[in-house]
Amino acid sequence: MVNQRIRVLNSAPERQDRDYVLYWCGANRRVDANHGLLRAVELANLWGLPVLVYEGVTSAHPHASDRLHTFLLEGVPETARRLKRLGIGYCFHLQRERDSHDDTFFRVAARAACVVADDYPTYYPALLNATVPAKLDVRYEVVDSSCIVPMNLLAKREYAAYTIRPKIHRLLPQFLEPCPEPRVRRRWEGPPPPFHLEFTEEQIPAIVASCEIDHSVPPSLCFRGGRRAAEARLQHFLEHGLRRYAKERNQPAAHATSRLSPYLHFGMISSLEVALAVRDYAREHRLIADEFLEELIVRRELAFNFARHSENPESLLNLPEWARATLLRHAKDPRSPCYSRARFEQADTHDELWNACQREMLLRGVIHGYYRMYWGKKIIEWSPTCQDALETMIRIHDRWALDGRDPNTYTNILWCFGLHDRPWQERPVFGTVRYMSLDGMKRKTNVEAYLREIEWIGRAGQDPFVSLTGQPCASL
DNA sequence: ATCGGCTCGCGCAA
DNA sequence: TGCGCGAAGCCGAT
After folding, report:
1. Chain B positions under 7 Å from a protein CB?
2. Strand C footprint nucleotides (protein C-beta < 7 Å)
3. What's the maximum distance between 2 C-alpha atoms anywhere in chain A?
């Protein structure tokens, strides 16, 4: 079953005379339900070797910030505990300098019999998978533990949700199965590698402060990183959100959505675990979970399919021909009002709902899924060009979002330009690309409740509306 | 409140 | 070749 998740990305041999099998968790920062880790353990058991997990956090990429570093570091002590329990070695490396050349991974890999990494189609993991394997003298495999139905099984780029849906549903019974717990034959003995950084949760603020990163992006007001926080969010959603999801998912102030996207993005929890938990809870409590599972599986995996099969997922060239043509025909339409990227980033427009969406991004590090569509459509409407609008959306996600740089990010942004969508009535700027209006938001959602909530958390500097503990939340 | 038109193209049935 | 229908809609007519 694991085999269909694997790709080998270089032609170097395995080297069984070396010290361990290395699992590099670049995208899936978890111990549970991780097919990559499972594969590493399988190979290690075959060769009688122990397993070492390498996890890195670098300050060398342009969007490194207190927000992202804190979220990532918050997961590390729990990862260390769980690996120790399983008898697996752990090397967590933090590169604090922005500019220095960091070869820690290569030094760890030099003693590995084989390197197993995550198959992930965007941003850093994708870049490293494209460049690192050729520099190694051992076999380098990547494993897809992000999708439930392995990306490898869908050979071409799908046109829309309706074309991928039957394929996903046909393959799903085969893959919607719990991932077994890894059992090592040979435990990791002795100390961790010399580069390993060990710390407690209390030390995190001081460690983050010591890094050469963007300190003007503070930690999220409501998301704590790590496995236990992810499990608490899931439990909270099962008990308080799932039964309301179908009716209230587009009602941001109702908090009926899972808010799991930061954890899914960093792989702190897997969509497979979420899907199984939701399915089982729904069975036990006689709920219908179809709408949630549609979004978690079909639409999320459509996004991975898109990222996997596009050369550059950040480009408008990916749009369907009808969308490119219609946007081009309207490229010279006047934009009024028209804002600079800085005005957008500072939540400084004439539209109070739009500003609140942007403030949610600044404070929480996410925007509610439905309002994010509105947020994106308005950036198109009020930017000088489509390319400017695209770059504004990506840039704001890169800098502020905990769920940015994800296949879903790029797909949702390009959806605003017509990707995976169909044409509608023609109008200025958008042509036949779907338009969204403030009146529509007011008609269909409780805009006032959302404005009050965002205003409240901005003023109070805390967010009791999104549960960190699994307990019910405040409401206004 | 509800309905139809807007408008393109994929995939399937025939 | 024809036809149904689609990731979150808008607008104007009734």
Report:
1. 5-12
2. 5-11
3. 68
